């Protein structure tokens, strides 16, 4: 398993670095849009969302990302419009009102869960590529140290009802990985953050990475699937790989604003 983790990192990390640092911001927007669409498609497959409802959800997700990239002031209006359109499509497409909430809910939950969360990375990128490198570096370090700590030291289960493989040792590994990587990446990527705030931010990323992982496991158990997809050999789907970053992105943005580091 560790070989496949390294192989994926060798492929993904240079692509991320290239789109964030070397290319114009629109390329990072394109990458986020593609990742969002793939992750949404996996979520919709998990909950058997098909046809016009799936298409409307994917288009709404893209519209949300466009709003956050081009004009974040339009972001609330786009979300409300998405709800109105998706609800109206369910009304017009299926005369039977039974299960209407069950039909609409996964479409809307996916919008908040994936494109709305990923959109905060676009806001971070607009203030400089260092924020994205800091975010993903801390998430990757938290996830990796959690994995290896859990494999070597893990005995007590963290939350077996949701994720039987997660251990308390792995959780502590995530916190340590976040704090240590926050200290290092804060110096390298966002020196204006300062050592104390970088360590604190990394520690919080370690916490929310665990939460993001468990939330995705919760959805998968509810849907009755092991992996969100099979696009990444040995790793499952796109959603399986970005679950921590989905939660960490908004939190890093909120923390950086609270610190007065970005507008």
Q: What is the H/E order?
A: HHHHHHHEEHHH
- Taking pLDDT < 50 over at least 5 consecutive residues as the criterion, the unreliable ranges are none
**What is the first-to-last residue Cα distance?**
41 Å
Query: Would you count the extended β strands for me?
Result: 2
Structural class: mainly alpha
Compute the number of helices.
Answer: 10
Q: So what's the overall shape?
A: globular
Q: If you compute it from the alpha carbons, what radius of gyration comes out, rounded to the nearest whole angstrom?
A: 19 Å
Overall average residue pLDDT: 90
What is the topology, as strand order, of the major beta sheet? Answer: 1-2
Query: What percent of the residues sit in helical stretches (DSSP H or I)?
Result: over 70%
**Share in β-strands:** under 5%
Q: Main beta sheet: strand number and arrangement? A: 2 strands, antiparallel
Q: Can you describe this structure?
A:
The protein is mainly α. The protein is 77% helix and 3% strand. Strands 1-2 form a two-stranded antiparallel ribbon. Helix 3 (51-70) packs parallel to helix 5, helix 3 (51-70) runs parallel beside helix 6 (115-125) and helix 8 (168-188) crosses helix 9. It is globular and about 60 Å long. The relative contact order is 0.12. The model has no long low-confidence stretch (mean pLDDT 90).
């Amino acid at each position: 398993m560790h070989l496949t983790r390294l192989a994926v990192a060798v492929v993904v990390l240079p692509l991320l670095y290239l789109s964030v640092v070397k290319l114009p911001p629109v390329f990072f927007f394109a990458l986020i849009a593609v990742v969002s669409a793939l992750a949404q498609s996996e979520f919709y497959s998990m909950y058997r969302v098909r046809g016009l409802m799936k298409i409307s959800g994917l288009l709404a997700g893209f519209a949300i990302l466009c709003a956050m990239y081009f004009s974040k002031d339009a972001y609330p209006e786009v979300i409300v419009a998405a709800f109105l359109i998706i609800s109206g499509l369910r009304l017009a497409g299926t005369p039977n009102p039974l299960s209407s909430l069950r039909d609409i809910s996964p479409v809307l939950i996916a919008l908040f869960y994936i494109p709305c969360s990923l959109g905060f990375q676009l806001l971070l990128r607009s203030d400089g590529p260092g924020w994205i490198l800091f975010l993903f570096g801390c998430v990757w370090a938290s996830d990796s140290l959690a994995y290896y700590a859990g494999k070597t030291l893990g005995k007590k289960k963290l939350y077996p009802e949701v994720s039987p493989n997660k251990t308390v040792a792995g959780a502590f590994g995530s916190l340590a990985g976040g704090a240590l990587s926050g200290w290092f990446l804060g110096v390298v990527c966002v020196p204006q953050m300062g050592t104390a705030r970088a360590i604190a931010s990394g520690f919080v990323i370690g916490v929310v990475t665990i939460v993001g992982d468990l939330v995705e496991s919760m959805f998968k158990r509810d849907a009755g699937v092991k992996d969100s997809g099979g696009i990444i050999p040995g790793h499952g789907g796109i959603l399986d790989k970005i679950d921590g970053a989905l939660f960490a992105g908004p939190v890093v943005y909120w923390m950086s604003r609270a610190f007065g580091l970005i507008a």
